[in-house]
Amino acid sequence: MNSPIILLQRAFSTSITKQSLIFGVIYYIMAFAVIAGLVAVAALIGFGGFLALAAINITMLNLIAILVAIIITIPTIIAIQAFFDILITEGYYQIIHDGRHDSEKIKKAVFDRIIPYIIFMIILGLIYIFIFGFFTIPLFLLFQETGLIAGVILTIIVGMLIAPIMLVAQPFVILENYSGIEATIKAMQLGMKNYLFNGACMVVILIVSIILTIASLIPVLGLLISFYMGILIAIYIIEIYQENKARAR
User: Fold this and answer.
1) Taking 60 as the threshold, does the pLDDT of residue 29 lie above it?
2) Reported pTM
3) Cα distance from N-terminal residue to C-terminal residue, the chain
4) Rounded Cα distance, 91 and 106, in Å
5) 140 pLDDT higher than 70
6) What is the CA radius of gyration of the chain?
7) Measured between alpha carbons, how far is 2 from 196 in angstroms, rounded to an integer?
8) For residues 180 and 126, what is the distance between their CA atoms, to the nearest angstrom?
């Protein structure tokens, strides 16, 4: 069995290879292009919608337009997030094992795993919404603003306690061939079996993130360090996932 530090050393060795850096550049260029495109489309639609609604000035139609925008926007954001999560996880998993990424295999993984992964994202979101509501609503009704603050703090604490269980859920759901609900359950079971180990890994992630975030404040080099941090953390989480599976055997 490997310690969190050994896994970090492995992740670092992989992250500085030519293939990892090239794939990272491809990933960030694609992400930037998609985000820029979405912002441009949203700006055009929003501006046009604003002019139309200003001309119509009917409250019910305004509300319907806002509702339609929300219904379109939220699934789009979820789908795009799922696409990029699968892209980076599958790509770096291939680089760890094969030394290079295979675009065709990544494309197949996106088509095969995007629905299960979206289901996982929805389940995870509902879990955190439930936790937030469970603490915040009663406390807010009892103590108003003070209760709201206390509820948020309790939600954060519980979220931190749950985090080691969910640490390897993303690579598990993406890389294992299970349905969305089954993959989520099995990922949580794997996280629970390795709770303390995953907790230690999260401490390592926190320390590395703080160090690299401070380093990213350096002029000029800051952007490159931020870029590299994303690569290192993505590979490290895949290494943790593989170690979780090895420890669960």
Assistant:
1) yes
2) 0.87
3) 11
4) 6
5) yes
6) 21
7) 14
8) 14
